[in-house]
Design goal:
The complex is a heterodimer of chains A (about 325) and B (about 325).
Chain A: H1 3-10, H2 16-39, H3 46-71, H4 79-101, H5 105-133, H6 138-157, H7 170-173, E1 175-176, E2 180-181, H8 182-200, H9 202-212, H10 214-219, H11 224-250, H12 261-271, H13 283-302, H14 307-328
Antiparallel strand pairs in A: 1-2
Chain B: H1 2-26, E1 30-35, H2 41-57, E2 63-68, H3 73-85, E3 90-93, H4 102-110, E4 114-118, E5 129-132, H5 135-148, E6 157-162, H6 168-184, E7 187-193, H7 198-211, E8 217-220, H8 223-235, E9 242-246, H9 250-257, E10 263-266, H10 269-284, E11 292-293, E12 297-299, H11 301-310, H12 316-324
Parallel strand pairs in B: 1-2, 1-3, 3-4, 4-5, 5-11, 6-7, 6-8, 8-9, 9-10
Antiparallel strand pairs in B: 10-12
Helix pairs in contact in B: 2-10, 3-4, 5-6, 7-8, 9-11
Classes of the chains: A mainly alpha (about 325), B alpha/beta (about 325).
């Protein structure tokens, strides 16, 4: 027996592709944390870390829903406009309920958020029906929803800011046990629920199957249309909660805000390893991707770098992430 | 059958052309109002006041169609082109910057469409008429007040929140802030664009409060960004920083009334709005008008009630409730 050959066989050569596919994104996060802590002495302060988590919470919540869509090979370009519309409806509904009916804060808040979720589900139901029934490109359908939602937001508010909204602002500004901001709590909860959905349920397996090969999934007996619709409805709930948090943090309902949030969310998913071709993506990757984008913006602001450089750097990060993604998901080639 | 169908279609076409021209002869002159962006609270407010005044005063003189420029110079130019081709008698517009609309405005004027610029002016050698204020003066008013009150002096740590870079009002107001702050020897520790947006200003100021907790004054190019700054300050428990901004919009006035905002600047909103309506009526009748520069005013706690009444339509009861909330 050739013991030398055996020893060599037992000692696998290091493969960057396998390493990156397993832990690459966390590795990048750690490197970024180290770099940021060297660039700013306050980066790792409790206050800044809490700010960072709070500031990324809304995008992360939207990204959880978008990850499901991206895994199935679909997308959503309306999340920003929907956040604005639904967020305004939540605040407007709360204000009406608490002022005109005198309903207490908690039930009024629950009803208002419930109304926002139902509205979001209704609009995304229409979008997903058109996408699945007529095989319309998700890109176009959700772009149409985006334009309509922005118009609806302006119409609902009469293009004015909803002010003096009352105690619902605690949703975006309050803290659990006086320490953990509620947006962060919601982010963690939704991330956990999404992780369970993707990894522990049949629906999660169906989503990956559809994204990997829709025809095979159908041939295997999966109701692809129904699964895609359910993914959009889950995303609708994420968007509604994100809208309520976004506007309550702003202390007012602003119909013109939340522009471009969908691109931040899609970027987070892509950086986190999801593939626009479908079939690939994880929630942990998405959350880490969202944190990476948030960290870049945070450190550049802490170090007083102008926002246009931030945009250039974010663009370069996206290109880097996509290139690495293509290289590492192209099989077992050494990189 | 095909011949019958063709005949019917031709008849319909001829009939519609005749009826359109007949309507055109008896219809009122048409005016297009191109708002810089519906999402800009101040520009939208000017448009609303214009429409109210138009309804009371010029409803029988001309008709109005409104358009959203979406803060996009290219979109605004497209709208000017479209309105010119559609033979509007006059265009009232709010500009994003003083240079990009110039060729389109000149083409409109050459085609017989009068152009009135409100809340700004453009560099078109007098082809259009304007109702303008000086954004540098608006920024300077705030810093002058701060210096007079001893809030800004040599070494005072200040930050500036700019509007959308490259736009007339953002560049002017920022120049107003920075020139005087530099002259007095204040220390501008950060200067960043938040693109006129409350939600963009908030995380920027949150980060600044951590990287530079010694900040004493915040100068914002508009009330919306100042509100984002105030939100960030509130969440960080910082009530010591003085915040100054421009617009005196509704939420800005409320923040001033509540002692959160130190001072704001009111532009002559009625001058912009009503003046534009008056200009349009005069030009349509063939009369001459003269462009105007309208002064802006510093608004402090003493003056804010008046602004809330006259510009934002608040009653005394509503003003009293603002303080109670």
């Amino acid at each position: 027996m050739n013991t030398q050959g055996l020893a060599q066989g037992n000692r696998e050569r290091f493969s960057f592709v396998k390493f990156y596919n397993k832990v690459g994104i966390f590795f990048i996060l750690i490197i970024l944390v180290v770099i940021c802590s060297m660039l700013s002495p306050v980066f790792l302060s409790k206050a800044n870390l809490m700010n960072l988590l709070t500031q990324t919470a809304v995008v992360s919540i939207i990204a959880c829903g978008i990850t499901l869509l991206v895994i199935t090979g679909n997308t959503d370009l309306s999340a920003g406009s929907m956040v604005a519309f639904v967020g305004c409806v939540v605040l407007g509904t709360y204000k009406s309920l608490s002022e005109s009916t005198g309903l207490a804060s908690l039930p009024a808040g629950l009803l208002a958020v419930g109304a926002g979720i139902l509205l979001s589900i209704a609009l995304y139901s229409v979008a997903s029906f058109i996408i699945t029934r007529y095989r319309a490109p998700a890109f176009i359908v959700t772009l149409a929803i985006s334009t309509s939602a922005r118009g609806l937001a302006l119409m609902y508010t009469n293009a004015k800011v909803i002010k003096s909204v009352g105690k619902i602002v605690n949703l975006g500004q309050g803290k659990l046990f006086g320490e953990i901001p509620f947006p962060v709590v919601f982010m963690v909860l939704i991330a956990v629920v999404t992780w369970v959905l993707l990894t522990q349920t049949r629906m999660g397996r169906y989503l990956y199957a559809i994204g990997g090969n829709p025809e095979s999934a159908k041939a295997a007996g999966i109701n692809t249309n129904r699964t895609i619709v359910l993914a959009y409805l889950f995303h609708a709930v994420c968007v509604a909660i994100a809208g309520a948090l976004f506007m309550s943090r702003l202390n007012s309902g602003q119909p013109a805000e939340a522009v471009g949030l969908e691109f931040d969310a899609i970027t987070a998913a892509i950086i986190g390893g999801a593939s626009l071709a479908g079939g690939i993506g994880t929630i942990t990757g998405t959350i880490v991707g969202s944190l990476i984008i948030g960290m870049i913006s945070n450190i550049l602001t802490l170090t007083h770098v102008q926002s246009y450089y931030q945009q250039i750097i974010t663009g370069l990060v996206i290109v880097f992430a996509v290139v690495v993604d293509i290289k590492t998901k192209g099989g077992s080639k050494r990189f | 059958m095909k011949k019958v169908l063709a005949l019917v279609l031709v008849t319909m076409l001829a009939f519609s052309m005749i009826s359109v021209s007949a309507v055109a002869e008896t219809a009122l002159p048409r005016v297009a109002f191109i708002c810089k962006g519906y999402s800009d609270t101040y520009c939208y407010l000017v448009m609303q006041i214009f429409l109210d005044y138009y309804e009371k005063t010029y409803k029988d003189v001309y008709t109005v169609d409104t358009f959203d420029g979406e803060f996009d110079s290219d979109k605004i130019n497209t709208l000017i082109e479209t309105c010119t081709a559609d033979k509007y008698d006059a265009i009232i517009m709010q500009q994003n910057d003083p240079d990009t609309p110039v060729p389109y405005v000149k083409a409109a004027v050459a085609a017989g469409t009068q152009v009135i610029i409100t809340v700004g002016s453009i560099n078109d050698d007098g082809e259009s008429f304007y109702l303008d204020a000086d954004p540098v003066q608006q920024g300077a008013l705030l810093v002058e007040y701060a210096i007079q009150q001893g809030l800004v002096k040599t070494g005072t740590k200040c930050v500036v929140l700019r509007g959308l870079d490259g736009t007339f009002h953002s560049e002017g107001r920022t120049e107003g802030f920075v020139t005087l702050l530099t002259e007095v020897g204040a220390d501008i520790v950060a200067n960043q664009t938040a693109e006129w947006s409350t939600s963009k200003a908030m995380p920027i100021v949150e980060s600044w409060l951590i990287s530079n907790p010694e900040i004493e004054c915040i100068f914002a190019c508009n009330d919306d960004m100042a509100l984002g700054a105030l939100q960030a300050m509130q969440l960080a428990g910082r009530n010591d920083i003085k915040v100054f901004s421009v617009d005196a919009n509704e939420l800005g006035c409320i923040a001033l009334k509540n002692g959160q905002l130190t001072a704001t600047v009111a532009q002559d909103t009625f001058g912009y709005a009503n003046g534009a309506a008056d200009f349009a009526a005069a030009l349509i009748k063939g009369e001459t008008v003269e462009s105007k520069r309208l002064d802006s005013k510093l608004i402090l706690l003493d003056q804010v009630d008046d602004v809330m009444r006259t510009v934002h339509g608040y009653t005394d009861e509503e003003i009293a409730k603002v303080v109670e909330q």
